[in-house]
Design a protein that fits this description.
Shape: globular
Number of strands: 7
Number of helices: 6
Structural class: alpha+beta
Distance between the termini: 70 Å
Oligomer: single chain
Length: 248
């Protein structure tokens, strides 16, 4: 006869614990009663993230960058444009429900209101109706405290992520119209030139250098919004190659 193993006396006396829900790490999950004491603090942090105050140079320059690039999941991040038009989008619907309804599994690495490095206000300038070489995409980048690496400076990977993003989205405009996810970034060669302090707002620029068949070459730079004696301060530069889809 097989004798079942006996439990240690301490384990036998321990009451059965109630089943626990799976862990979640979203910054805006619904708080349970134990966590509710921190609800006002969490709400304040969320409001500050969404309703940030843009630097004066950005407010003056954004409208000059070209046509605004609209995408439902981004419009929440730009709840009010220069004309005060919200385009009918709300923060929650655009940033979460839109993505889940269209097949995404999480939040955008660079465009969510909770992104460590947050890109917004993309605008495009076309050299002609057909786009092509010379097409320029410009955006605003906020390096939040969640992008920190060493002693108040941002991680080099956050700078590289910005380069990857602008290279891809610049290529998506090469035909003279925005065709989201019409290609894949195949190569990104990044040169990190100057460190970026946590909390900084910078300007990112991508430009189509060459377009041959399905291959699009992009040059991009991450520059300080305020010039140093009239000279742009470049913090990061990159050369990228995007391969367009066959049906793009």
């Amino acid at each position: 006869m097989t004798v079942p193993p006996t439990q240690p006396a301490e384990a036998a006396r321990r009451p059965h614990a109630a089943p626990q829900p799976p862990c979640r790490f979203d910054s805006d999950v619904t708080l349970d009663p134990v966590e509710s004491v921190d609800a006002p603090k969490k709400q304040l942090q969320h409001d500050k993230a969404v309703r940030r105050e843009l630097p004066p140079w950005a407010k003056e320059e954004i409208a000059k960058w070209g046509q605004r690039v609209h995408l439902p999941e981004w419009d929440a991040d730009e709840a009010l444009d220069e004309d005060g038009d919200s385009d009918g989008c709300t923060e929650g619907e655009a940033d979460e429900e839109y993505r889940s309804r269209n097949g995404w599994k999480g939040s955008d690495l660079c465009h969510s209101v909770h992104s460590p490095v947050r890109i917004s206000h993309y605008r495009v300038h076309y050299p002609s109706e057909d786009g092509g070489a010379g097409t320029i995409l410009t955006g605003l980048v906020h390096f939040t405290s969640r992008a920190e690496s060493h002693a108040g400076h941002c991680h080099g990977g956050s700078m590289t992520s910005v380069m990857d993003d602008v290279i891809g989205w610049t290529a998506f405009h090469v035909t003279g119209e925005c065709v989201p996810w019409s290609g894949f970034t195949a190569q990104v060669n990044v040169s990190l030139k100057r460190p970026i302090q946590v909390g900084s707002y910078l300007k990112v620029v991508g430009k189509v250098a060459r377009w041959e068949g399905r291959k699009v070459w992009i040059h991009s730079e991450l520059v300080a919004g305020e010039t140093d004696g009239g000279e742009e301060v470049v913090h990061c530069a990159a050369e990228g190659l995007v391969i367009l889809k066959r049906d793009a």
